[in-house]
Specification:
With 269 residues, the protein is of the alpha/beta class. It has helices spanning 10-13, 31-42, 55-64, 80-93, 118-150, 163-166, 172-192, 218-226, 236-246, and strands at residues 22-25, 46-51, 71-74, 100-103, 154-159, 197-204, 258-261. Helices cover 44% and strands 13% of the residues.
Length: 269
């Protein structure tokens, strides 16, 4: 990265815009990613909707966004070259840069250690690390350098997980990579502060999306809802609202934080 200039004073930092920004949301084809794209678009921002393989669903997300200037971009974040192409294409399509990056793209397939064969185990770990961790790290590096070149500051918001803290026995690579994403965000928060770039993470609990709707039926669903004293799980819009705030001018001083948004279903000490 280039050498930092003077540390921005508070007045300059507060000049980061609250709306009309250029926003890249990774993994925005459905579920939480769609809610994130909708939240930023409703805020008056222009959104680049990224998808990995679900183009039709991503097109539905794009069609539902309020406002204008939104774009659709596909890339496999496990491929560093494709990731670089995504960042460049997003910056070009949004008008010459990226002001906000939301790292939401992730894979999460079950691989319980006692019942998963070794080949499937190693495949699961390689894919989770490649997308969840390295894809996030690479896209953050690319977006941060675009923000530095622009000289106007920026925001990076990572979508982590409470699983990073409580453990994920059936999805250990997911929990481990989300813990690494939290640590990555904190390292970047320190490294990028001199450039006026704030970095923070959201650690959601269970979110009600189409992908996991089957898990919310019957006794299993009752048990999941009972994890929170509110007796329910999160709506995607609730997590998106937290990310929108962390990307706002008001949240500069939250840089480096990992924000628990899990309905008190898991309390860290």
């Amino acid at each position: 990265m280039p050498q930092p200039g003077p540390v921005p004073d508070p007045a300059a930092a507060s000049a980061f815009p609250a709306t009309g920004r250029r926003v890249l949301v990774s993994g925005a084809s459905r579920g939480l990613g769609r809610a994130l794209a909708q939240a930023f678009a409703a805020n008056g921002d222009r959104v680049a909707v990224h998808y990995g393989s679900r183009r039709e669903e991503a097109e539905e997300t794009l069609a539902e966004l309020p406002g204008t200037g939104h774009v659709l971009l596909g890339a496999d974040l496990a491929d560093p070259a494709a990731t670089a192409g995504l960042a460049a294409a997003a910056a070009d399509a949004l008008g010459g840069g990226i002001d906000v990056l939301v790292n939401n793209a992730a894979v999460n397939t079950p691989h319980p250690p006692a019942t998963t064969g070794y080949e499937q185990w190693t495949d699961a770990w390689q894919r989770h690390v490649a997308v969840n961790l390295l894809g996030t790290a690479n896209l953050s590096h690319l977006a941060a350098n675009l923000m530095i070149a622009a000289g106007t500051g920026g925001r990076i918001v990572n979508i982590g997980s409470r699983g990073a803290f409580r453990g994920e026995p059936d999805h250990p690579a997911y929990g481990a990579t989300k813990a690494a994403v939290h640590a990555l965000g904190q390292s970047l928060a320190v490294a990028l502060a001199p450039y006026g770039i704030a970095v923070a993470s959201v650690a959601p609990g269970f979110i009600e999306t189409d992908r996991v709707a089957h898990r919310l039926t019957g006794a299993g669903g009752d048990a999941i809802r009972a994890q929170s004293p509110f007796g329910r799980v999160a709506a995607p819009a609730e997590i998106a609202a937290a990310a929108l705030w962390l990307a706002s001018p008001a949240a500069l001083w939250a840089s480096g934080t990992v924000l628990d948004v899990n309905g008190a279903s898991y309390l860290r000490t």
